[in-house]
Amino acid sequence: MTVKVLIPTPLQKFTKNQAKVECAGSSISELIEDLEASFPGIKKSLCDEKGKPRTFLNFYVNSEDIRFLEGTETKLESGDEVSIVPAVAGG
């Protein structure tokens, strides 16, 4: 199963400056593990010490926020697109 992952610019240093990568996983948590296996060190930037996505990063599956789905247990299917989007703040 292949899932396309859109990598934000600040994390592209882990993916050899690739904005899109393909990974495998049947859930977001498995996808994060596959990203770490392919691009060592990226998980520390994606997840906190407990393995949960960092609060300043949002994950979307086919444009749907995983916070409103099943979180890191959101199921993935071949061909899905996962976007990792840094939170934006300002005034």
Structural description of this entry:
The chain has about 90 residues and is an alpha+beta fold. It has one domain (about 1-85): Roll (Ubiquitin-like (UB roll)), CATH 3.10.20. The chain is about 20% helix and about 25% strand. The protein is built from 2 helices and 5 strands. The protein has helices at about 30-40, 40-45, and strands at about 5, 20-25, 55-60, 65, 80-85. A 5-stranded mixed beta sheet has the order 2-1-5-3-4, covered by helices on one side. Strand 3 (about 55-60) and strand 4 form a beta hairpin. The longest helix is centred in the middle third of the chain and has 11 residues, at about 30-40. The protein is globular, with a radius of gyration of 12 Å. It starts with a strand and ends in a 5-residue tail after the last strand. The relative contact order is 0.25. The model has no long low-confidence stretch (mean pLDDT about 95). It comes from Planktothrix agardhii (strain NIVA-CYA 126/8). Pfam families: ThiS. InterPro entries: Beta-grasp_dom_sf (IPR012675), Mopterin_synth/thiamin_S_b (IPR016155), Sulfur_Carrier/Prot_Modifier (IPR052045), ThiS/MoaD-like (IPR003749). This is MoaD.
